[in-house]
Amino acid sequence: MGDGGYELVCYCGLYCGDCHNYKGEIADLARDLRKKLRESKFDRTSKGLSKYFKDFENYDQCYDVLGAMVRLRCKRGCRNGGGPPQCKIRNCCVKKGIQGCWECGEFETCTKLDFLKPIHDDAYIKNLKKINKGGIEGFVNGKRHW
């Protein structure tokens, strides 16, 4: 693909550079918050607060979720093996020898893309149409949907 962010264009029409997992911002914030909570022994504070505020009964679960967020990192990007290890979309494109779903005439009805709907709604379809119409360069340098 080359320079200019093209290697961050996912087979499905999403863009790794827009992804919170790739950017690591949420992971970093979760890591820092967990550290601050440990330093201030907030687990003890939450026990006292739980007598007055019911939500603090869930502190341990919250701390565990923050730990899961710390692990939400993807440094490699889709084209370099990042994202879901057995991504059906990536495997299909590689098998077909195409750069992405936009080169396939079935992308608007392909069920392999369905798992993206709950998180991305129809952003990937909009992106695929945009790439199909105007090419990767316009997509990388223009407005993308996430």
Q: Could you explain the architecture of this structure?
A:
The protein is mostly helical and 146 residues long. The protein folds into 2 domains: 1-15 and 84-146, no CATH class; 25-72, no CATH class. The protein is built from 7 helices and no strands. Helix 2 (25-39) packs across helix 4. The two termini are 21 Å apart. Pfam families: DUF3795 (PF12675). It comes from Methanooceanicella nereidis. InterPro entries: DUF3795 (IPR024227). This is DUF3795 domain-containing protein.
H-E order = HHHHHHH
Strand content: under 5%
From the helix content, strand content and strand pairing, which structural class follows? mainly alpha
Counted beta strands: 0
Distance between the termini: 21 Å
Overall radius of gyration = 20 Å
Protein name: DUF3795 domain-containing protein
Pfam families: DUF3795
Organism: Methanooceanicella nereidis
Quick recap of the structure?
With 146 residues, this protein is an all-alpha fold. Helices cover 49% and strands 0% of the residues.
Salient structural properties:
single chain; 146 residues; mainly alpha; 2 domains; elongated; DUF3795 domain-containing protein; DUF3795
